[in-house]
Design brief:
The protein has 192 residues and is an alpha+beta fold. The longest helix is centred in the middle third of the chain and has 25 residues. A four-stranded antiparallel sheet has the order 1-2-3-4, with no helix packed on it. Strands 5-6 form a two-stranded antiparallel sheet. A hairpin with a 5-residue loop joins strand 2 and strand 3. The N and C termini lie far apart (88 Å). Helix 3 packs across helix 4. The chain is built from four helices and six strands, in the order H-E-E-E-E-H-E-H-H-E. The radius of gyration is 42 Å and the shape is rod-shaped.
């Protein structure tokens, strides 16, 4: 224990015969009882300070206090139930949402992280296709198409098609892939 801890105890700080009997969490005040049975309240938000005589005891403070009783717990009735906290109008306080309301921000963060993982990892990234040169037209490969069929349908040769599309592999054409097809009367030469 620290050297000056005795100065924080009730026996040292309170007047003779005064005893702390309860705490009201709603108002942030401690309640005290003197040897004659009168109840006093302390200043708001402070453990010690000027005490004020109270005419009516809050319902959360027991009428008689034992030495071993828990001062900050609500008094238990004869059936074992404790009084719930009351608001300033005397009605019981019941938070809406309960425990789920406090967990909502946690679940919201988890949902955002999962959406980001799904977007960045699981969805394929779409890269904008390279535009076709001005002397060609764009063609989307359909199921069953071959390089020769595409060139033949557009009155071109397979060699010209492969010159315009050097990265296209005719063995592995996929439906939906874009191919640049040379125009009919166009002359194409290979530059090295």
């Amino acid at each position: 224990m620290g050297r000056w801890t005795q100065y924080d105890e009730d026996d040292y700080r309170l007047p003779e015969g005064m005893k702390r009997v309860g705490y009201d969490a709603d108002s942030g005040r401690y309640y005290f009882r003197d040897s004659e049975g009168l109840v006093y309240k302390g200043p708001e938000g402070s453990e010690f300070g000027e005490l004020t005589l109270v005419s009516e005891i809050p319902s959360s403070i027991p009428q008689e206090v034992d030495e071993d009783s828990d001062l900050e717990a609500a008094p238990a009735g004869t059936d074992g139930y404790r009084i719930l906290a009351l608001d300033e109008h005397g009605t019981r306080y019941n938070p809406r949402g309960g425990a789920y309301r406090t967990l909502f921000p946690f679940f919201l963060i988890i949902a955002v992280v999962l959406l980001l993982v799904w977007r960045l990892v699981l969805l394929p990234t779409r890269v904008a296709p390279v535009p076709c040169p001005s002397t060609t037209i764009s063609y989307i490969v359909e199921p069953g198409d071959t390089c020769w069929d595409i060139a033949n349908d557009h009155n071109s040769s397979l060699d010209k098609l492969l010159i315009v599309n050097p990265k296209v592999k005719c063995d592995m054409l996929m439906p939906g892939e874009r191919v640049c097809v040379p125009d009919e009367g166009m002359s194409i030469s290979v530059r090295f």
